[in-house]
Write a structure and sequence with these properties.
- The chain is 34% helix and 20% strand.
- It has 316 residues and is an alpha/beta fold.
- The chain has a nine-stranded mixed beta sheet, sandwiched between helices.
- The longest helix has 28 residues.
- The chain is globular.
- About 8% of the residues have low confidence.
């Protein structure tokens, strides 16, 4: 009995430490922009495809904000924010999923970067994202608002997010009917399953069937990126947890970590050269980008800015 009590006490202590670490991170991330303005000018690259997409694309972009419904979990005034190419036309849609303490207005540079490559990018400022609920609502809003819908190629929709939003990305795909509309995805420093459950982010909590996410249900191309800094490596997305995520997927997939001790917060933007290349491959059929990720001579394999790279293509 004493041994069981000690084990439970240790588990509780670990959860308290993790929650405290997350609280500190949220406080830090609540100050200012989480993705620096013009971050692409200072991000170091070491691959030709990465370098190409690390810069702004050819499109001038605009931004528009819409009111969003209130939610009992997020009582503040909420909004949907859309960044889009100024030039009229139909473009792929990217639905962004917030990290903890990082609503859409905290990383506008990321929206600008993606939109400049010919994407309509939509996000929200709800505080809760792990379950994918608000992401599903955001997608519905985009597709049912004429002013936005007329710009979207509905056969080319992707979803991606950071931290809590990385977990929310997984669940947006698997837990909602409109998740079937996504054709590609990316998850940046996703909260691992055990940490999510410790934070009460999960489904069927308190039962033997509880889970944070179900990666085995995902059948669209998925990119997973994490950092090698202390907070990612020890808490949010340790290498062993990233490998579990990768192995659970049965789709085209890549997973890698940013080298040089780049940590959790910076993953929001540091790897976006490859993130946009991934989107262009699957949403715009830019086949040349396949050489960045797949095969023994894949560009990222020899890119010193990354490590622990693995990839797999699923052939039908």
């Amino acid at each position: 009995m004493k041994k069981l009590f000690k084990i439970l006490l240790i588990v509780l202590l670990i959860i308290v430490i993790l929650v405290a670490a997350l609280a500190i991170l949220l406080f830090v991330m609540s100050k200012g922009q989480n993705a620096p303005k013009n971050y692409w000018e200072n991000t170091v690259t070491a691959g030709a495809i990465e370098e190409k997409y690390n810069h702004l694309g050819e499109y001038s972009v605009k931004k528009k904000t819409y009111d969003a419904p209130r939610d009992e979990r997020d009582a503040a005034d909420n909004h949907f924010v859309v960044w889009y190419p100024e030039k009229e036309g139909k473009y792929p849609l990217v639905v962004m999923v917030n990290g903890s303490g990082v609503p859409c207005d905290k990383y506008e540079a990321v929206f600008q970067h993606f939109a400049s490559w010919g994407y309509v990018v939509i996000g929200n400022d709800y505080g809760t994202s792990w379950d994918g609920k608000h992401t599903s609502e955001t997608l519905d809003f985009a597709l049912n608002t004429d002013e936005i819908a007329k710009m979207i190629d509905t056969d080319k929709i992707a979803v991606g997010g950071h931290s809590q939003g990385g977990m929310g990305t997984f669940n947006a795909i698997t837990e909602y009917e409109n998740g079937s509309l996504y054709k590609a995805a990316f998850s940046l420093s996703p909260t691992n399953n055990d940490l999510g459950l410790g934070l009460q982010w999960g489904f069927r909590l308190g039962t033997e069937e509880q889970y944070g996410f179900r990666l085995e249900e995902i059948n669209i191309p998925m990119m997973i990126v994490a950092g090698t800094g202390k907070f990612d490596s020890e808490t949010v997305t340790p290498l062993s947890e990233m490998q579990k995520m990768y192995e659970s997927l049965g789709c085209d997939k890549v997973a890698f970590r940013k080298a040089d001790d780049v940590d959790h917060g910076n993953i929001l933007y540091e790897a976006n050269g490859y993130v946009i290349a991934w989107l262009d491959l699957y949403l715009k059929d830019v086949e040349a980008n396949r050489t960045a990720f797949f095969g023994e001579t894949a560009e990222i394999r020899s890119n010193e800015r990354y490590q622990d790279f693995c990839s797999q293509q699923v052939t039908e």
